[in-house]
ABC transporter ATPase (Kitasatospora cheerisanensis KCTC 2395), 729 residues
Amino acid sequence: MPQPPFPHAAEQQQFQPQPPQAFQPPAQQQSFPPPQAFQPQQQAQPPAPQHPAAAGGLGNPTMVRSLSGGRTIRIGRALDNDIVVSDLQVSRHHAELRQLPDGRWEIVDLGSHNGIFLNGQPTRRQLMGPQDRLTVGHSSFVLVGDQLQEFVDNGAVTFSAHHLTVEVDFKGGKKTLLGDVSFSVPEKSLVAVIGPSGSGKSTLLRALTGYRPADRGDVLYDGRNLYRQFAELRSRIGLVPQSEILHKELTVRTALKYAARLRFPGDTEAAERDRRIDEVLYELRLDKRADNRITALSGGQQKRVSVALELLTKPSLIFLDEPTSGLDPGMDREVMQTLRGLADDGRTVLVVTHSVAELALCDRLLVMAPGGSVAYFGPPAEALHFFGYETWADVFQAFENYPDHDWAGRYRNSVHHQQYSANVDAAVTQAQPNALNQLRPPKPQSWGSQLWTLIRRYLAVIASDKGFIALSLLLPLVLGAVSAVIPDKCGLAPCASNGRNDVARLILMVVAFSACLSGSANSVRELIKERAIYERERATGLSRSAYLMSKIIVLGAISFLQGGIISAIAFKVRTLPAEGLLLKHLPAAEMAIGVILLSFTSMMVGLAISSLVKTAEKTMPLLVMFAIVQMVFTGAIFQLFDKPGLEQFAWLMPARWGVSASGNTLDLAHISPVVIVKPPETGPYDTLWNHSVGIMFLNWFMMIAISVGLAFAIQRFQKRHEPEVMQKG
Ligand SMILES: Nc1ncnc2c1ncn2[C@@H]1O[C@H](COP(=O)(O)OP(=O)(O)OP(=O)(O)O)[C@@H](O)[C@H]1O
């Protein structure tokens, strides 16, 4: 196997890594005064006896309360609780610790939004013993003798990965995307992950955040297994993916307001949320930009807004996937300095990056080698020396030129490994046993409240996009007008001469095509363009069905309006039959119902396409294909009925039912048959076009049924874009 040349290999032999130096950041320009920690009245009877769990990362208790007096202790955010936890993740009246007649203690969830966790597992009501750890928001409680001790996760937590391995099925075998990755970072660290394209950086990020747990290996958060206790620990993790997780059309403050509504418990007041938003805006130096649209900010500022969003819930760990890609060197530095500040303020920050210019700001550097293994982990200042090259371009080129070299082995046998990674395996023994199943995390908001917030946010996004509003109005106006220019002799009514009107079905076909196009055009990009936002929000507790329903309601209303506009133009200019089937005096309105339902069903098809595709570019060809297929299968061009196979296939086409629904009013079967027969009375006729109330209902019903079927299908398609732990529901 060819060995890569290591130009400074001799130096490297003798090189002794320096003990890690604490990074001295430049003086902070602004430092937000930390919120005052609540000091409960009943506090202070130290020294407190130590709970066994304290050794597993709990540290010193922030509060100790004697249990000898009370039989019931209520925990919550409101000031009337026995133990007040001033944390927006906690409900006003969150949980109660109740003493049973036999002296044992039971913990009861009082209907909190974010739930309670006993030893990392969600529970509603459970006995709590001296070995148990109860978690409410960022606070953990343990029973020690006749005392209840509280420990607050203030962000200073250790974090480690242990032998993470990710494999996927590939060409009939297994492909390793991540191979035995281990490292450990101390609290308040900024860690950079670099590596050539395809070296598994994103895979590592997904494994570390629990989005796609590793097939083998563990991630420990302060000594606790993240995968087994994901329901509890997920709220301590912030993730800023590469794609935007905010609606850029909104102002910074509005975007954060909606995010806060979705992430904080339903019982938080607007003033509380606003206060927290002000805090994060100040911390990230965005307070002067709060009322600017996100699109009007620089790339670096936009990234800081995404970080601000994640900071709302005070995570202890923040992960970022290439936050500086596409930014100029100045902004790159600005973002990295912001991350440095976040780590110094007491969080651990891990950033995947392609940029190597600002690595010196980091405490640790993880270099991934092709094949998903660790080529280096240690201080950034020593990394180039370790590889024996002058520049990172040389190192990456060596990765490229010597793909079979055992880069991981080289690191494993180095003094750097001994110094910076050897303690990783020791930490595993401190991991708590994880006997319980991984459960789906609770939702911070009720379904209805999420739906309402999502609808309002969607309307706000639409209202800020004047171009979309103009196009949504223009499209049906133009399409309706196009159908109106088709010349006719007798409008849509039977001609007096022969009782026929052969152009009627063509007019309905064009109207149906217009409804299909405008309905699906509204929605076809909707889910794909928001996929990163959806994925992130889903991980923080967003309801899949509430999200989909918000889209259906808002887009449904737009489709309704568009179908109405098309019908108004198309039917207004035509002579119609004197009477409708159901709405006797309003035949045009009756026909419009069919067009509106078709527009709605097409909108659902658009959403289905949007949930299926991998990139937004693929939506356009599919949209055109959908519209043309619909036109062909309206039944107005060639005979579909009494054609086995073809007829049944056409049942799947919304336009088939749409044309039929409007055609029922006109008695299209007889005035405009697609098969010319002589004498006309003998048929055969398309029975779906018959002048019959029952058949009109059938046509309406079928469009509704297709829409419902599509809604279920979209739900399933959306699942594929969710973090694995959320796919169960
Ligand atoms: N489902 C899959 N099946 C087969 N190979 C996959 C699959 N998912 C990812 N890969 C491959 O695994 C490797 C690691 O991908 P990953 O996205 O983690 O790399 P990366 O270092 O983040 O790359 P980049 O810097 O380009 O974003 C890549 O070669 C990718 O093609």
The two ends are 49 Å apart (CA to CA).
